[in-house]
Amino acid sequence: MPYMLISTQIRLENGPTNVGDEYSDPDVMNYLGARKTTMLGNNFSEYNVDEPPRVVLDKLEKIGFRLLSMTGVGQTLVWCLHRETE
After folding, report:
1. Which CATH superfamily hosts domain 3-82?
2. Tens of pLDDT along 7-25?
3. Which site in 23, 28, 43, 74 is 20 to 30 Å from 80, CA atoms measured?
4. Is the peptide bond before 16 cis (omega within 30 degrees of 0)?
5. Facing residues of 77 across strands?
6. What is the signed CA dihedral for 5, 9, 13, 17, rounded to 10 degrees?
């Protein structure tokens, strides 16, 4: 999967960071040390890490992801990344 979104709440900018959903590449999630969780009341799962977004972005750059865009949505910061596949 060449696209990836990561996000965090503005008040939690030092972590945790949401790094994927239930369809995310398991190898990438393992590399990030992410844990899969389901919040009470949600019918979907998310992957999270304790590190801040800056650390996650550095790790993803090392495996070929490049930042496409970043935005704020309400109280959430969102980064969109892409990795070229062969």
Report:
1. GTP cyclohydrolase I feedback regulatory protein GFRP (3.30.1410.10)
2. 988 776 677 899 999 999 9
3. 43
4. yes
5. 8, 72
6. -40
